[in-house]
Design a protein that fits this description.
Layout: E1 3-9, E2 16-18, E3 25-27, H1 33-36, E4 45-51, H2 63-76, E5 82-86, H3 92-102, E6 103-104, E7 110-113, H4 126-137, E8 140-141, E9 144-145, E10 150-154, E11 157-160, E12 165-166, E13 175-176, E14 184-186, E15 190-192, E16 207-208, E17 216-220, E18 238-243, H5 253-264, E19 268-273, H6 289-294, E20 297-298, H7 304-314, H8 324-329
Parallel strand pairs: 1-4, 1-5, 5-7, 7-10, 17-18, 18-19, 19-20
Antiparallel strand pairs: 2-3, 6-16, 8-9, 10-11, 11-14, 12-13, 14-15
Helix pairs in contact: 2-3, 3-7
Active site: 13, 89
Pfam families: Asparaginase (PF00710), Asparaginase_C (PF17763)
Family: Belongs to the asparaginase 1 family.
Length: 338
């Protein structure tokens, strides 16, 4: 029996072709993908295509589009064995992270991929990314999906979606998962590292939680920054601070005073690291003690993309019991090393 994969095309470079009159890139009709890539007809799975009505640059992807994707997966969950989302590369890590929190009780693969060059380009990376993603999206053993999480496949590597970041705008190998090992790698053989795969051990039936708040602000700390600027920003529910190293910030009474004032106004403060690899460890250095004093929340070894989308999903979400801090601090779907 051939597995059925639903391919959701949202936009991005992978679905572009060159307009030879103008020289610029434009989206082609993705309904004709089988003409562009006849190899897809040779796959050991059936592929059904659902393109967005209007393909989007990934910089236009956000909460409303995440909800469209989750709703479409929910409506079609029982009819397909796997889902492949074609997406622009710039914000793919944000979408993959958000979907990992919004899709509950997932027992089927949801793979995201894209490309650095258009599918019609002679040197494109699009075809390999697309074809191998289809393999992963349709991979089953003993009538059970091998991958049961949201993942990104790019340039021969399968990565946990909420652990990824885009680190290169130039190389085909554009994505990294610095704090979690790869889930699989394609070469002559299609390899899976089963010990690294996520499994939802709850008895939860598949459902979606589309709650997303946009009342979140992300701020990168830098040397010489004037803390008084924080007094001028509007009140928000969550402030995510990207700080130095394992959790340090300039030590002064002004720093403590202003951050405490923000906390007293009801804003949750989450701390993540500017380092690509490693994570936050309050108390390791004296200059991190200010965060313990004000009751800030450690983002541990989460990526910025994952921390942002997790905060958006959790803050004031009526579907969770317990405090924001309690829920944010625990690993929900493998986004934190425990």
């Amino acid at each position: 029996m051939k597995r059925k994969v639903l391919l959701i095309y949202t936009g991005g470079t992978i679905g572009m072709e060159k307009d030879y009159e103008s020289g610029s890139l434009r989206a082609f009709d993705f309904g004709n993908i089988f003409e562009k890539m006849p190899e897809m007809k040779l796959m050991e799975c059936e592929v059904f295509v659902h393109p967005f009505a209007k393909p989007l640059d990934s910089s236009d992807m956000g909460p409303e589009e995440w909800k469209i994707i989750t709703n479409y997966i929910f409506d079609n969950y029982d009819h397909f064995d796997g889902f492949l989302i074609l997406h622009g590369t710039d914000t793919m890590s944000y979408t993959a992270s958000a979907l990992s929190f919004m899709l509950k009780g997932l027992k089927k693969p949801v793979i995201l991929t894209g490309s650095q060059l258009p599918i019609g380009d002679l040197r494109t990376d699009a075809k390999e990314n697309l074809l191998t993603s289809l393999y992963y999206a349709s991979l089953y053993e003993n009538e059970e999906a091998v991958i049961q999480e949201v993942a990104i496949y790019f340039e021969y590597k399968l990565l946990r979606g909420n652990r990824t970041l885009k680190y290169s705008a130039e190389f085909f190998d554009a994505y990294s998962s610095p704090n979690y090992p790869i889930l699989g790698q394609s070469g002559v053989h299609l390899n899976i590292v089963k010990d690294n795969l996520y499994r939802d051990r709850s008895e939860t039936e598949f459902h979606i939680d589309n709650y997303i708040s946009e009342d979140v602000l992300f701020w990168r700390i830098f040397p010489g920054m004037k803390m008084n600027h924080f007094k001028e920003i509007p009140k928000m529910k969550v402030l995510i601070l990207q700080v130095f190293g394992s959790g340090t910030i300039f030590s002064s009474e002004k720093t403590l005073e202003i951050l405490q004032e923000i906390r007293n106004n009801g804003t949750e403060i989450v701390v993540v690291s500017q380092c690509i690899s490693g994570g936050i460890s309050f108390g390791k250095y004296e200059n991190s003690n200010v965060f313990a004093k004000i009751g800030a929340i450690s983002g541990k070894d989460m990526t910025a993309e994952s921390a942002i989308t997790k905060a958006m999903h959790l803050i004031d979400n009526p579907n969770y019991t317990g405090s924001f801090a309690e829920n944010f601090s625990r690993s929900m779907c493998g986004e934190i090393t425990e």
